[in-house]
Write a sequence for this structure.
């Protein structure tokens, strides 16, 4: 079909995407010219075939078939072939004696065979062209940006979504380097990705493209390679899905979660005020007591400097202890981006227990800790994991408030296979009703009269953020156990 038609749709200059002509005056005029040219050519060949020239002139009717094929209609190709065969037979009958079979008969037969073969090949080519044209239309219907490039990186196809999103028309993009045009930022070495595509035929990952306006897009990218009969890569089709807004929404959601987690920690510390005051008061009272003792030893005559030194040493030790308590509280209240690190399980559990120990004592809850020796370190955010444990212990104490003595709370930490550590928080409270267990981790679901229903939801989200799991088992009237299973740091894994 002529590319000069004003009604021709925008298209890539590629052997895959054929020209798609829409009805219009220009297209109709062009088709009419092709028809007239085919008829004129057939008449001319017929007249030459009637002349005494000794040759297979009728073979030239193949040109009539090719000219008619430009209209891209099966019926017109068949009509042109039928006319060519009819004219070949007519010329033979008018120019030769039917009583003898000779070279002229052979030439006529060869010509008819050539016309038939040319017709079949033309029809096959038209069918393939239409199939490729249909595929091109389908690619243009996609909302994803899609373009094809040759092994050197030059664009050979550019769909409508790519035009709309990137800002370059197909006519501007085709023939240019995709990487240079879009200033592609890869997550890894470009050569390594290309090697992967050549070896496996495909690649998937996240990369960034720059639009014509200068905006950067984050894209989920999928590449598929096409090979020729010799196994050589001839084309790569790239499909890109814009996830920029989705990632921004995810970042906003993560920020909101962090804000909510911080607010929950603040609320938890509000409930633990008495416990924290008691924890700080103990070393401060020891500082005062040892300071007064030191003064008394100094007033003696002569001063007992050995005892003074010991008293001052105790003052320093208790001051450091108070500082550690304040540090723990400040860390718990820390409002900062997540900082994954290697965490010692023993210190994690002991620090979390220190924050609630006094409140547990006031509620007459006996706390026992059991940490398996040589337990491997875990990977995650220390403050967030501490919040999970504090929340679970506070919830357990509150659940046992109406239970008669003894009230027992146990925190056990042990290996769970070779790849995880399990922290088990168990109480002997009233248990949880079976109908409530499935909804326990849902936001805003609570069994407490004054609860918000966010604590356990945040705990599970925190766990899942670091590849950990948080589950619950409960027996009515016997107690509840929460299992916090956390992956160990990679180098700590043992076969």
């Amino acid at each position: 079909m002529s590319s000069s038609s004003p009604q021709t749709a925008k298209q890539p200059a590629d052997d895959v995407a054929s020209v798609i002509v829409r009805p219009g005056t220009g297209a109709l005029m062009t088709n009419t010219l092709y028809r007239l040219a085919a008829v004129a050519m057939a008449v001319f060949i017929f007249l030459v075939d009637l002349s005494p020239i000794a040759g297979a002139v009728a073979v030239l009717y193949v040109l009539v078939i090719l000219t008619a094929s430009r209209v891209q209609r099966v019926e017109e190709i068949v009509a042109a072939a039928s006319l060519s065969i009819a004219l070949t037979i007519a010329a033979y009958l008018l120019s030769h004696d039917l009583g003898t079979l000779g070279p002229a008969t052979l030439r006529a037969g060869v010509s008819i065979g050539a016309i038939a073969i040319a017709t079949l090949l033309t029809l096959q080519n038209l069918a393939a062209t239409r199939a490729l044209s249909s595929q091109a239309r389908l690619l243009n219907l996609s909302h994803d940006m899609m373009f094809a490039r040759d092994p050197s990186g030059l664009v050979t196809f550019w769909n409508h979504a790519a035009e709309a999103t990137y800002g370059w028309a197909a006519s501007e993009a085709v023939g240019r380097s995709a990487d240079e045009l879009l200033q592609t930022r890869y997550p890894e070495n470009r050569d390594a990705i290309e090697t992967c595509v050549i070896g496996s035929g495909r690649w998937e990952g996240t990369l960034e493209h720059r639009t014509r306006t200068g905006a950067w897009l984050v894209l989920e990218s999928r590449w598929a390679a096409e090979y020729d009969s010799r196994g050589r890569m001839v084309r790569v089709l790239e499909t890109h899905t814009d996830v920029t807004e989705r990632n921004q929404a995810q970042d906003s959601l993560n920020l909101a979660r962090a804000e909510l987690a911080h607010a929950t920690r603040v609320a938890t510390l509000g409930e633990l005020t008495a416990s924290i005051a008691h924890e700080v008061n103990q070393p401060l009272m020891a500082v005062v007591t040892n300071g007064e003792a030191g003064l008394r030893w100094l007033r003696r005559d002569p001063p007992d400097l050995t005892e003074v030194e010991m008293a001052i040493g105790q003052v320093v030790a208790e001051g450091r202890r108070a500082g550690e308590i304040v540090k723990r509280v400040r860390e718990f209240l820390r409002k900062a981006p997540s900082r994954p690190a290697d965490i010692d399980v023993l210190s994690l559990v002991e620090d979390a227990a220190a924050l609630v120990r006094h409140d547990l004592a006031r509620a007459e809850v006996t706390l026992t800790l059991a940490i398996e020796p040589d337990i491997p370190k875990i990977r995650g955010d220390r403050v967030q994991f501490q919040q999970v444990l504090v929340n679970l212990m506070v919830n357990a104490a509150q659940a046992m408030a109406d239970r008669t003595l003894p009230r027992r709370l146990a925190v056990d930490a042990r290996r769970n296979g070779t790849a995880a550590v399990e922290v088990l928080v168990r109480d002997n409270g009233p248990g949880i009703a079976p109908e409530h267990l499935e909804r326990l981790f849902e936001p805003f679901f609570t069994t407490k009269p004054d609860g918000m229903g966010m604590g356990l939801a945040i705990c599970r989200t925190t766990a899942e953020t670091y590849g950990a799991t948080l589950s619950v088992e409960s027996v009515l009237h016997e107690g509840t156990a929460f299992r916090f299973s956390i992956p160990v740091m990679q180098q700590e894994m043992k076969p």
The CA atoms of residues 283 and 321 lie 6 Å apart.
